[in-house]
Amino acid sequence: MWVPDLQVDQQTSVFLMTLTFVPQLLDSEWINEQFKNILEIALLRLAQTYQLNPRKLFLDDVLYRNALLARNNGTVRGIHNRKVVTVKISGSRLESSHMLIWTRLRHANVVPVYGMCTIARYDFLGQYDGVGLVSPFVENTNVINFLKANAAADRQSFILDVALGMSYLHENEVVHGRIHGQNILITSTDPPRACLVDFGLGAVVPVGTRAAHFLAPEFGVLGSQCPGTKAGDVYAFSTASYEILTKPEHLEKEWSPWLDPFKPDDSGLDDSTWELLLDSWQEDPDKRPRACQVVERLEEMKKLKKLRVDQLEMSLNTILKDPKHYKQLLSCPEADAQEVLDAFQLLLDTNQLEDRVQLIAAMRRLSERTGLYPRRFLLKDPLKRENNPVASGGFADIYKVNVDVLGDEVCVKAKNGNLNEYLERNPEVNRILLVLDTAAGVDYLHKNDIVHGDLKGSLKKNVFIDSSGRACLGDFGLSSVTDPQIINWTSQSIEASTGGTIRWQAPELLRDVDKIHNSKESDVFAWASICYEAFTGRLPFYEIKHLMTLMAALLNGKTPTRPRIDDPAWSEHGLNDRIWDLMEDCWKSGPLERPKMVDIISVLKQENQVDSRPSGDWEGRVSMRYRIAQGHNPNLTKELSSLWDRLGVLLSRIVPRALERD
After folding, report:
1. Contact 348, 358 (CB under 8 A)
2. 588 and 471 in one domain?
């Protein structure tokens, strides 16, 4: 494409740069891409020549902390349009014009820029107006820090994200110039996504021994002052991928990627990925793959891996659904059983499988038969137990325990105590939201074919409140997995035995103790009694003191007493006729007459309560992240990269015909 060389004086350039219609043309949809490119290049040349930027890109309402305290090329946090933003401070007078490039780029794997702001800066010549680049605040920081806290993250997807961002830049004739882990940010989306930041500002690489690993050999003695090239980006991308897929300390060693490539034994580098890194580390820039070719190869690897995983998932489903194969799996020798339990738990902990219910059920049966359990459940760090138990139950005493994990003290506990204690301290709290929390917890258990079996708010106190004011279920002493597809080939019942406390028990549990067991329907009955506690502050059947009288009342279909019309439950605590009718439906004598938890949640949501509470303490599978942080797999990246292959070999040995048929 031909673009005219712009030979204009500064006055003309100022006029051109301040024209509001030029940036508007770039944002419009009715002009073609070729003309947009001409305008962009023209603006860029003006900016580079006269160190000016379009005024439309400057944001006047950015509030930020004292920028004088931030170093050059550093960042400060600010506020723009009531959103938290990051303001990157220009390190020199000349650098600010290059920021124009960033404002014109739009890609899912490139951190966007809202615009620029003026920041007072000082150098040996005196004060000058520096430029701050305003971009979204990315909570998860860079990929290196993110992986320290999330060792089981999908690293292969991160390097594909980086390659996609790099390819987009190169397609737009932009060289990043300093790709490395600190310039790769991770979003807080689900799933998390890797994005490039800090491009177009010169090929500055990290300081220290690591720097040489990111610097392509053709730059030689120019070092960090070298001009960026696309081939140099590919070389740096390869080292950044190595940094993501292996332990960070490997980059501290003195070795040259192109001269003496080093593949550590504890890495998650498979042969195809290692071959791509070697090609990208070629000494001759012309022999390195282009960014688009890197993307093609990574996407092909992703497709082949997915195909392999899909095949093994089909085989696993065949084993779990076919009675003969399922029996073979559950009858495997103890050595194989331990490997199966470890592999299945790693699948669950790292979110590698969509259908979790059948896998959990199979693990439970295998564990019951062998007396084994996943070795990941064993906490390795020393426990710091308090002297006195915080509660006692029919199964064991409960102690508060602190465990040090990766230098941080972790104590999984309910910081606001149990439901009754919380309501006594906070009588004005929204109780509809709390019962909705408990309903969501029971519904989650039921969707995973788990019956709680001992729901109650008082006495054993099985409903806890976390620091965000959300109700959470605890004490699963009587819970069990209930899966109708599990083959009943042993004498072990697939449902929990009867238990719990009579005030919360459904009547069918009292009729024939030897034959009737806890069920999802009995959980619904007990849940309604928790609602009664939450709204009234009294135990269900509080007026009945004697056990035999209480049992007789339940067997005769009696339900907890409706509060009087002047009771605070109606006027202050949120109870209304709709919720009371729902509770009475849950207390019906016939188990099949009671509503499902999903229908209960639907009714409660119609109350249209505004929930302004922050996220709960235990969301996002905190127990799984905790086990990963415990370091049960020192080489977790390697373990994950070979997990499906190892599982395939294991299953083919235990249930050979199932895999042959698939």
Report:
1. no
2. yes
350 occurs within a structural domain: yes
For the chain, count helices (H), then strands (E): 25, 16
- Which letter does DSSP use for residue 596 in this model? P
> Where is 460: in which H helix or E strand?
none
Residues 337 and 452 in one domain: no
Strand arrangement, sheet containing 408-410: 383-385, 401-405, 408-410
The total of structural domains in the chain comes to 5
Q: What is the pLDDT of residue 280?
A: 95
Range of the domain at 254: 143-289
The first and second tokens of residue 116, run together, are 């620029």
Neighbours of 276 (CB within 10 A): 22
The predicted structure's pLDDT at residue 96: 46
CB 597 within 8 A of CB 582: no
pLDDT at 232: 92
Give the model's pLDDT for residue 388: 64
Instruction: List pLDDT tens digits, range 240-284.
Output: 999 898 876 666 665 666 667 778 776 667 889 999 999 999 999
**Residues 277 and 258 occupy one common structural domain:** yes
Beta bridge partners of 58: 116
What residues pair up with 196 in beta bridges, in sequence order?
110, 184
Same domain for 482 and 585, yes or no, is yes
In a domain, 5, yes or no: no
Residue 653 neighbours by CB distance under 10 Å: 13
- Quote the CA–CA distance of 560 and 543 in Å, as a whole number: 9
| Domain membership flag for residue 61 | yes
DSSP output for 493-537: -SSPPS-S-GGG--THHHH-TTT----HHHHHHHHHHHHHHHHHS
DSSP 206-233: -SSTTHHHHS-GGGGGGGGGSPP-HHHH
> What pLDDT is stored for residue 414 in this prediction?
57
pLDDT at 532: 95
Torsions phi, psi of 218, nearest 5?
Answer: -70, -15
Give me the CATH number covering residue 575. Answer: 1.10.510.10
* Residue 200 identity (one-letter amino acid): G
Over the stretch 413-448, which tens digit does the pLDDT of each residue have?
556 788 888 999 999 999 999 999 999 999 988 887
Residues of the chain under the 70 pLDDT cut: 1-31, 33, 36-56, 64-74, 90-101, 120-129, 140, 199-212, 220-227, 248-259, 266-268, 351-355, 379-415, 457-461, 475-500, 512-516, 615-641, 657-662
Cα–Cα distance between 641 and 639 in angstroms, integer? 6
CA–CA distance, 628 with 588 (Å, rounded to integer): 44
Q: Which of 440, 420, 433 is nearest to 468 (CA)?
A: 433
Sign of the CA dihedral 13, 19, 25, 31? negative
Quote the CA–CA distance of 75 and 90 in Å, as a whole number. 9
> Based on the domain organization, do 453 and 587 belong to the same domain?
yes
Shared-domain flag, residues 284 and 166: yes
Q: Say whether both 279 and 216 belong to one domain.
A: yes
Residue 51 belongs to some domain of the structure = yes
How much is the pLDDT for 46? 62
Question: What's residue 566's pLDDT?
Answer: 94
| Residue 652 to residue 336: CA distance in whole angstroms | 12
Taking the C-alpha atoms of residue 375 and residue 367, their distance in angstroms, rounded to an integer, is: 12
Same domain, 391 and 443: no
